[in-house]
Structure formats: structure tokens, C-alpha cells
Amino acid sequence: EVQLVESGGGLVQPGGSLRLSCAASGFTFSSSVMSWVRQAPGKGLEWVSSIYSCCSDTYYADSVKGRFTISTDNAKNTLYLQMNSLKSEDTAVYYCAKEGPPPAGFGSWGQGTQVTVSS
What we know:
single chain; 7-stranded mixed sheet; globular; 4-stranded antiparallel sheet
């Protein structure tokens, strides 16, 4: 059974940083494509970033490019999202997902972690 458990969310001031983590189990993490997807209050799902765990090829939405960095630790079966220079519009629930990037779909999701950017 695929399990994805996010952590690391919280309240941060504009311009601050957070690192999200996603602990994965139940599949071969090192050969998987992993993604972060977010949902802002009252809005739909927005793809944020994807990574090919095998070779660290990375992809980013234009809205986060240059500010966010996706990475993996294959020894720990863990996905990360380092978020710098955070803006109020980054406020959302962030989900870890297996597969992507778009147009590929997402087969499994974590429960999400809340990120709030506010002064």
C-alpha cells in the first residue's frame, strides 16, 4: 500500500523559508516520479514541482521557479520541498503526490500540510 505523509508546514512571514518533507512507503521510491501540488483557499489544485527520483531531473511551475527547490533522499524514501522568499500567494495546503508532472496524472496523494504566509 502506497503511503505518503507530509510534514513541515506552518506559519511564516513573507520573505521567509520553510522546508516540507514527505515520507514515502509501499513502492520503489528511487524509481518513481514524485510531485508537490498545492491548493490555495477557494481555488483548485495547482501543480508546483516534480522530480524523477532516479536521476534528479526537476520541473517547476513558473510561479515558484527560482524560489522553490524539490529534492529527494532515496536512502530515506523522502521527498522535500525547500521554499524560500515566500509570498502571501504561496498560502495553501501542500500535497505530496506520486507521479506527474502534468500532463501525467497523480496516482497517490498524502494528506497535505498547511503553509500560511502572513505577517
